Amino acid sequence: MDQQTLQKITTSKSLGRSKTYGILLEYLVRKTQAGETVKEYTIAQEVFNKPDFDPSQSTLVRVHMYNLRKKLNHYYKHEGRDEQLLIEIPKGSYEIKFVERSHGAHKGDTKVILPERWRPLVWTGTALLMLSLFINVFLALDRRSRAGDLHKGLWKDLYESDRSCVVVLGDLFIYQEADPELSNGRSIRDPNVNSLEELEEFQRDFPRQKVAITPLTYGLLIRSSVVWIKQLTEIFRSIEKDFTIRTISRFNPKELQDHDFIVIGMVKTLGLFNSYFNDSHFRISQNAELSYVDTAGITHTYRPHGDPDTYHTDYGIMAKFPGPNNNNIYYFGGLWDTGTSQSLKNFTDLNLLQSLEEAMKTKFGSLPKYYEVLFEVDGIDRMEVNSKILIMHALEE
Question: pTM to 2 decimals?
Answer without folding.
Answer: 0.68
